[in-house]
């Protein structure tokens, strides 16, 4: 099995400095996390490995999609990772994926990468069919739009 088996990813070059991209990525998720017209509300975040990561996504037709999990990694200024396989107090849950969001300096801007690692090829395919590329791509575009608009 290779490192990228059962993995989907999106990457974007963002023409803004890494510090700004990180600030928006980590501290302003409600502005970019869901593809419009969906929106997200952050319910609770304890930004450390093992810390709670809970949010609720709301759709334009009244859909409500709670996301409950924990952080697996939180490396300030570089990346964070979370999973829905474990919830608060280390309670097992029905695993779907591990999400990893990371940035790296690139030229005069920043390389943003979002990765979804799945336990099985079946769940990866399900995520892909749910619209991973369009959805996560729209989120990356929204993040880039905010950062590029606000760069000095």
UniProtKB/TrEMBL annotation:
Q: Where is the Activator of Hsp90 ATPase homologue 1/2-like C-terminal domain?
A: 15-147
- TM helices/strands, residue ranges: none
CDD domains the record matches = SRPBCC_CalC_Aha1-like_3
SUPFAM superfamilies found in the cross-reference section: Bet v1-like (SSF55961)
User: Which InterPro entries does its entry note?
Assistant: ASHA1/2-like_C, START-like_dom_sf
In which family does this protein belong, per the annotation?
A: Belongs to the AHA1 family.
Identify this protein by name. Answer: ATPase
Please tell me the species this chain comes from. Novosphingobium pentaromativorans
